[in-house]
Amino acid sequence: MDIIEIDALRLRCEIGFSPHEAGVKQDVVITMRIGTDMRRAGMTDDPADAFNYRTVAKAIIGHVEASHYKLVEALAESIARIVVMEHGAPWVQVRVHKPGALRFSDSVGVVIERAPADYA
User: Could you report the per-residue pLDDT of 40-58, keeping only the tens digit for each?
Assistant: First the structure.
């Protein structure tokens, strides 16, 4: 399987469950590894044969910036579902980090991996 990498999308959304986080947009950093087969696109050099990662990124940006989640786990899950179920990726790894969430740490986050079978 080939992998498309989208590194460090810096977005803002309402995330957290502490009283001081309510209604406040905070930074999140999202990294995705999207599994796909790039052989045909590599042979034909035709954009129609390639996985459209720009469309995926736009969908993720729109979703995240309009979202409200208590947990980074839930945000990561929603992103994985969009990539796999709405854009047909056979596999995705999603990393979501929340900068400044833990004192003395640059960020705290999660990494999940999903495939279509996870949503059956």
Answer: 999 999 999 999 999 999 9
DSSP strands (E only) in the chain? 2-15, 25-36, 68-69, 91-99, 107-114
Q: How many CB atoms lie within 10 A of CB 67?
A: 16
**Contact between residue 54 and residue 61 where contact means Cβ atoms under 8 Å apart:** no
Residue with token string 């400044």: 100
Q: d(Cα 28, Cα 45) in Å, to the nearest integer?
A: 34
At residue 46, the 3 state secondary structure works out as coil
- For 24, the token pair is 């406040």
pLDDT at 101 over 90: no
